[in-house]
Amino acid sequence: MRTASQEGSFELTIPSDPAEVQRIQDHIEGQLKQHQFEDRDIFSIRLALEEALVNAIKHGNQMDRSKKVHIQCAIKSDRFEVGIADEGPGFDPEEVPDPLCEENLERPCGRGLFSSSTT
């Protein structure tokens, strides 16, 4: 579902279905190309979108397909802004293991969030 609110801004709502991630990435990539974003920047945005959307579906909504993921985007001449919200219970960022600690450096996950105490 797409709702246009102003030039370059839109909202999308998807079910918690991992198959939706690529569709959303493709849609946003098309919008970025229309606004003449560089390929390098589009690649980086696609990667960040994948991480955020998968986290919202998997960790936030616990793969519950009855829950939704809400995406708000704003494409401006000099930047891309995105907000992604799930319908999960939330979490305490202070309880997330520090990905920079020695014991976490080789972990294949846990890199999508840095709290202000780790940066």
What are the main properties of this structure?
alpha+beta; Heat Shock Protein 90; four-stranded antiparallel β-sheet; 2 helices; 4 strands; 24% strand
Give a structural overview.
- The longest helix is centred in the middle third of the chain and has 22 residues, at about 40-60.
- The protein folds into 2 domains: about 1-90, Heat Shock Protein 90, CATH 3.30.565.10; about 90-119, no CATH class.
- Helix 1 (about 20-35) runs antiparallel to helix 2.
- Strand 3 (about 70-75) and strand 4 form a beta hairpin.
- A 4-stranded antiparallel sheet has the order 1-2-3-4, with helices on one face.
- It is globular and about 45 Å long.
- The chain has helices at about 20-35, 40-60, and strands spanning about 1-5, 10-15, 70-75, 80-85.
- It is built from 2 helices and 4 strands.
- It has about 120 residues and is α+β, with helices and mostly antiparallel strands.
